[in-house]
Amino acid sequence: MSTSTALAGLGAVVSGAAFVAPAPVLAQSASEPDNAIVVTARRTEERLESVPLAISAFSAEALETQDIKSLNDISAATPGFQFQNQAGGGSGRNDRSINNLTFRGLALGNVSPISQGGLVFIDGAPVINASVPAIDDVARVEVLKGPQAAYFGRSTFSGAVNFVTKSPTYDFSGRVKGMAGNYGSNAVSGSVNIPVIDQMLAFRLGASHDFEGGQYRNSADRSQHLGDRKTDAVSAQLLFEPMSTLKITGFASYAVSKDGPPAQAAIKSSEFNCDLGGTSGGYYCGKLPAKLPASLIGGNYQLDQRAYDVLIANSAEYPTIFDPGFNKSTGLKRETVQADLRMDWELGGGMVLSSITAYHSDKTQTGLDLTFRDTSDIANPTASLPGAPSYVKWLLNYQTYVTDFSQELRLTSAQDQPLRWTVGASYFTADYDSGAIWGINPYGTGNSSTLTNQKPKTPAIFGAVYFDVTPELTISAEGRYQWDKIRMSVLASAAGVYYDSPIVQQATFKSFSPRLTVDYKFAPDSTAYVLFSRGYRPGGFNGAYDALSDTEKAQIATTGGSTYKQERLDNYEVGIKSAFMNGKASIRAAVYVDKYRDGQVSNSYTYYPDGSSTINLLSVVENLGAVDLWGIELEGNVTPAEGLSFNGSFGLADSDIKNFICAECLNIGGTTDATGNKLSGVPRLTWTAGVQYDRQLSDAWSGYARLDYRHRGRQYVDNYNAAWSRNDDKVDVRFGARQDANGGGGLAVEAFVTNLFNEQTMVGGRATDLVTLTTNEIRLALPEKRRMGVRFSYEF
């Protein structure tokens, strides 16, 4: 479907009333007003229309109705928020190893689990690497756009996603759910609510299994699917109220993900259609193809005895973070632990003392073919070297392990006074091991990265003051001062040799992140606001560069060095929120202008290691980015008649590069200047439109039908803006019925089809071809095809 057709569809929604809201509960009327949604963006409960911030909120019912179960799904339904599994860049893998959150078009090139522009939170506590809890445990998801450091701290200088978990109740109840779909997809989950002491102690226990079948076959092994993803999880929640003024809640989960080889591919020099004079030869210009021939989708993932010995048994004894036997196959294995404990104590006079304590861990190992293609028919020109494979092969293992701990204490004044305030302090620390990369390459076996350990420690103080000049007019001042104390230790060289003494770098990055707001309540459930906010992302170290010899450094034309400084984002925003028609319609709109300065740009350089004739790649972070961004975000819904609801959203995210020394641009077009270009990796235009109809079928059953339309405009593959993805238009349909049992609960069934018309749009990023190590390639995340199936749930 064309963009013009899509816009016409959006116009129909606008004429109906307004723009998007999250959809309602399965088989329940969509007329529930948005003012029933409570959010905690400022660490206290407030109605969505009352908070002078750009927020998209999804209730538990909305998550279920739209079958939202991942950050990808949340991104598809939220203007100003973009999430996709890693594509392009140094590794380009389309898997769940690194989660990169992008807000308002600010795609960052230097992202690691401990240094992100946007971060996931569970119950207000930071979660490194954005591991998402099982959606069955979630009561609400809040997507906050723009700098959020004032309340959420580090790594939120462009936005945050907060998952609020369900609290147990004092009634015995439970639920089971199931799903079966094409490609062998299946899911089953269950939870039970257990009251122990009435009005004092209760638990909720849950477990889930989710398997998403891969939609592509490996051309190198037709029996193997690409894109299989499986997650098994268990969880527990606690509610303890020993007295009327004290409430303690807790959440804990353990999950194991086991994915097959990722659904990815590459466009290589043999498929290029232009030559722009770049230093790495030809390139692909214009729209990416709609699809690739099946013969180009594949990878060499077979673990024969030699590959097993190198990757799993680590026969070459390369530096590792943990026992490689953790994952005895190719693809990804991840083990996560998440736990938080929250206390809210009413002190009297309306004051509340709150504490949030959290711990998370993420252990991941991935076996990946970096040729991004079946190369078993390409003879290896270096096959005569000892241990070298007979054909070109890059099969590597990646390991990362990160743990984090955080503690926050906060004192909040009474909320029914014209002058309100909050003061608090927080502490965050993490332990991050990375750079364990080894395996088989065309020269034999090898180690491909320096092994590093990073330990950030971030104490902070924060506060806020809110003053009602009149009952309608409020001015607010919020801010956080933090000290990011970062220590990096380089433990082993890229050659796989441990240093006698680690190379240690450390620095403290200080920052003050303010937010100033003026908001005016011009009608009931209606707010207009203007704000300024500033966010920082801490600096860091180029440990791999620092580990090079002087002769190796001399080959790399970087303007940076061992240390790069923190980057800054200034956000100017005006917005309006309103619920009207007696709660049957609502609209939320925001317009923003952002200034991104001292941006951390990750550029890849080639060099020849001392005493070697083989070329190597090195990624160096440099403070070269300066970008102006602006955009519009609209959401809303309307219920014009009983049982009939419309909703939709619109997002415009534009950018203008002011300064950016761009190494990939040199490889593509022969220049490092990207001035005036758009940032790659994000669509400029997105919109959604949905309609739902609910009807009572009998005294015992109600039914519904729902249609959702999602449009994502083209996005550039590279900062040179030579190649871009096609427009992406997807339609989802759902039909279902629910038993109206006395006292609630009962059976619900649904049939669904996502991507009804099997739209296939590839996204990707420019990288270096690891077959040649000298030419361009575009690494692609293969699109989701049509999925269909049935779901059921039973509540008791």
Structure, explained:
With 796 residues, the chain is mainly beta. It has a single domain, classed as Maltoporin, Chain A. Helices cover 7% and strands 55% of the residues. It contains eight helices and 43 strands. The strands form nine sheets. It has a 22-stranded antiparallel beta barrel. A five-stranded mixed sheet has the order 3-8-9-6-7. It has a three-stranded antiparallel sheet with strand order 17-42-41. Strand 39 and strand 40 form a beta hairpin. The N terminus is likely disordered.
Provide the fold topology.
Layout lengths: L2 H14 L21 E2 L6 E2 L7 E5 H6 L5 H6 L4 E5 L13 E5 L14 E5 L2 E3 L10 E8 L3 H4 L6 E7 L7 E9 L4 E12 L3 E12 L3 E3 L2 E6 L2 E15 L2 E14 L4 E4 L6 E5 L2 E3 L2 E2 L17 H7 L19 E18 L2 E19 L25 E18 L6 E23 L2 E4 L3 E18 L4 E20 L5 E26 L2 E12 L2 E2 L1 H4 L3 H4 L9 E2 L2 E14 L4 E23 L8 E26 L2 E16 L3 H7 L15 E12 L4 E12 L10 E2 L3 E12 L6 E9 L8 E6 L7 E6 L5 E9 L1
Parallel strand pairs: 6-9, 20-38
Antiparallel strand pairs: 1-2, 3-8, 4-5, 6-7, 8-9, 10-11, 10-43, 11-12, 12-15, 13-14, 15-16, 16-21, 17-42, 18-19, 21-22, 22-23, 23-24, 24-25, 24-26, 26-27, 27-28, 28-29, 29-32, 30-31, 32-33, 33-34, 34-35, 35-36, 36-37, 37-39, 39-40, 40-43, 41-42
Subcellular location: Cell outer membrane
InterPro entries: Beta-barrel_TonB (IPR000531), Beta-barrel_TonB_sf (IPR036942), Plug_dom (IPR012910), TonB-dep_rcpt-like (IPR039426)
Protein name: TonB-dependent receptor
